[in-house]
C-alpha cells in the first residue's frame, strides 16, 4: 500500500500537479489508513521511516501533529507548528498498555518530529525564539508526565533533549529572531533648546535629519554627520547621489523617494547598517549590483521607477526584497568580471623563540581550524556572502588550500561533516601522507544513516612519517554529564542536553623524526608519546556555565587517558602524574580570553563562584571529575594539574572568528609545559585589507570559513638519554 502511494506521488510530482493527485491528498489517505489500521506507535514509526519521499513524510507528519493537538493551528510543517505541538499535544500510550487516555494513540511523538526536522519550512514570519523553544519543551515534559501518571521513558526523554538542542541550533543557524527594527515615526516631535539651557551647557543630540525645499544638490558638510541614523531627503529635485553618502555608516533609514535620481553610486552597498531604503518615484533604470551587499535591509522601496522587467518581477514576488538582494549579490562578481575584492595578502610569520640547543628536541607543527560545516553556512546567517561562495563545492577547495598551505604535521578540525570526512578530507589528506580520526556529535547515534552523514564533528590528522597512532578516544559530554549529574539539576537540564564532543589521539613520535630534528642518535630511548586533543564546545553565549563544565569534563577525560596510557604502556613516568605525556589541546572553545573557560585552562583552576557558573549548583558534580589527584576544591577553587599555555598569548591574534555580528578570539592551541615550547605562530590577516575592501564578515569569496586558522611550530623537549658505558646506554632508573 505504501509503495503504491509513493509511486502515485512521484507520478503526481513529475508528470503534472493535478489537484486530483497531489501530496496533500495522498498523505491524507495514508493518514486515515495509519490511524485506523496501525494503532501501535512502533509500527507507525516503521511506516514513517520506510517512506522514501521526504515530501510525503512531512505531509503525513503534519497530519499526525495536528491529530494530537486539541488546539488546532493552521500552519505548514514549520518551527511554529512543532512548538505548537509540544505545547498543546495530548499524549496516550500504545493500546497494548493498560492505560487508556482519550482517543488519541499518538504516543510520545518526539521521534516522529525529529524525523522531519531537516525538512522544516522556514518562513519570514515564522519567528521562534530560544525562550519559546525552552517553554514549549518544558510544557511538553510536565504535561506528558501528568497525562501518563509517570515519568517519561528514558529513551523518550533523551529524544526530547536532542530535539530541544536541535531546535536551538536551528534557531542559531537561521539567525532567529532578527533584531527588531522600528522605523522612524513620521509624527516625530522636535524640541528647541532654550538660551538658558544652552548657557548652562546642555548638549543637543539629534540622530535624524530632514532636508526639504526642492533641493538640487547636497552640501559636502552633510557627510561629516556620521552620527545620523535616519536621513529624510524625499520630495526634492536631486538627480544624483554622491558616493560620499557611504560615509554615513550609521544610517539605518534612508528616504530618497520622489526625486529625479537616475543612477545610484555603487558605494551605497557599503552602508550595511541600512534596514530601510526608499527609492520610490525616481528615474532609476538600473540598480548597482553592490546593493546586494545590504544584507540587513528589510524594506526596499522601488515603486514608480522604469526598472527592467526582470528586476521588477523579482521585487514583486513574495519576500521580493530578499530575493532581489540575493540576486544582485550573487551576480555582483559576474557583473564586473571578477571577484569584487583582491586576494588577501599572505599572513605573516611571528617568531617567538629559538629552539633549545642544549638538549635533544623534535620540531613539529600544529594547525587548528573550524571549517564551517555546510549545513551552518546559510544566507540567513551570513547574508553578506554570495550564495555561490557559501556553496560547499566552492568552499571546500579553498579550505583544502588553506590546510595544505600550512602543511602542518598535526591538523585539528572542527565542524567537519561526517560525509565530507570520509569522502573528501580523509582521501585528500591520505594522498599527502596523513592519517586521521573522526567522531561526530552524539546525536548521530540516534539518527538514520541518511541523516547521520550530515552531522558534524571533530577530526585529528597526523603525518604518518612523523607519528603513529597508539590510541584513539571519543569524549561525549552529554554522557559524562548524565553519569555525574547526581545532586545537580543544572547538569541534567543544561549540560546533558548539549551533544558536543571531543576527540583525543595518543601518538608515538617516530624515532627517525626525533633523530632528524636533534641531529643525534637516540638509540636506547624509550618510546616518546604525544597526546593530541581536539574539542568543540557549545556555541550559545547564554550557556557560559555549560562551556566551562564541558571543558572541565574534557580535561578530566584527557587526564584519565594519560593515566591509563602511563600504566598500560609501562612508561617510566610516575603513574598519576598529570604531565607524564606532553599534551597539545586544540579547540573551538566558543569562549573569549577573559572567560572562565580560558582562565581554567591557562591558570590551572577557577573559583567555584565564578560568574560563568551563573550561580547554578555544579560544585558537587564537578568534584567527581578526577583531574588533579581528586579534582581539588581547596580554597573554593576547582583545579587541574596540567601546566597549559596558549600558543597565541598577549593578543597576537585579535580575532579568530570574524562575522558581521561578532569578532573575537574563541579558537585556541594550548600546549603543556615543561615538555613543549612554541617557536613561532602564523599571525593575523592584515586588518587593512579587511577595511579597505569593506569586508563585513566571513565567509567571503576569498575566505571559506567564518574562522581563521591557527598554526604554530612547537618544540618537543626529549628526555635526557641514560649514561653510556663503553658506548652502550644504561637503562634509566625507574
Automatic annotation (TrEMBL):
Q: Which SUPFAM superfamilies match?
A: DNase I-like (SSF56219), L domain-like (SSF52058)
Cofactors (names): Mg(2+)
What EC number(s) would the UniProt record show?
A: 3.1.13.4
Please state where this protein is localized. Cytoplasm; Nucleus
Q: Which InterPro entries match?
A: CCR4/nocturin_mRNA_transcr (IPR050410), Endo/exonu/phosph_ase_sf (IPR036691), Endo/exonuclease/phosphatase (IPR005135), Leu-rich_rpt (IPR001611), Leu-rich_rpt_typical-subtyp (IPR003591), LRR_dom_sf (IPR032675)
Q: What is its main location?
A: cytoplasm
Similarity remark: Belongs to the CCR4/nocturin family.
What's the protein name?
poly(A)-specific ribonuclease
Q: Which organism is it from?
A: Etheostoma spectabile
